[in-house]
């Protein structure tokens, strides 16, 4: 019966160790995320000028619809760098 008790003890110690390590990973990850969000500024979006030959091809209403759809879907974090007709 002592072998069974040792096996259960090792099982318990192993499970507690894994739980503690995973908890530390989550805590350190959250701290890193909070630090980065607080002290490192977000890059400003660069406005890309539309080429002269593309201005006639783009319908302003369609561009506005695409921009608003991307803004809604990505919660304002996405950006459009190029619009091409396929």
What would you say this structure looks like, in words?
This protein starts with a helix and ends in a 13-residue tail after the last helix. The longest helix is centred in the first third of the chain and has 38 residues, at about 1-40. The protein is about 65% helix and about 0% strand. The chain has two domains: about 1-40; about 45-85, no CATH class. The model has no long low-confidence stretch (mean pLDDT about 85). With about 90 residues, it is mainly α. It has helices at about 1-40, 50-55, 60-75.
Oligomeric state? single chain
Helix content: 55-70%
Radius of gyration: 27 Å
Q: What's the helix-strand series?
A: HHH
* Count of helix runs: 3
Structural classification:
mainly alpha
Low-confidence parts lasting 5 or more residues at pLDDT below 50? none
- Give the rounded overall mean pLDDT: 85
Tally the structural domains.
Answer: 2
What percentage of amino acids are in beta strands?
Answer: under 5%
Note the main sheet.
Answer: none
How would you summarize this macromolecular structure in one to three sentences?
Helices cover 65% and strands 0% of the residues. It has helices at 2-39, 52-55, 60-73.
Helices and strands, with pairings:
Blueprint: H1 2-39, H2 52-55, H3 60-73
Which key phrases capture this entry?
86 residues, mainly alpha, 2 domains, 65% helix, elongated
């Amino acid at each position: 019966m002592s072998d069974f008790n040792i096996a259960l003890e090792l099982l318990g110690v192993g499970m507690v160790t894994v739980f503690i390590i995973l908890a530390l990973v989550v805590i350190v990850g959250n701290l890193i995320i909070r630090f980065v969000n607080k002290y490192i500024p977000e890059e400003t979006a660069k406005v890309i000028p539309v080429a002269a030959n593309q201005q006639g091809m783009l319908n302003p209403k369609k561009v506005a619809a695409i921009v608003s759809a991307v803004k809604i879907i990505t919660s304002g974090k996405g950006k459009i760098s190029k619009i091409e007709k396929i």
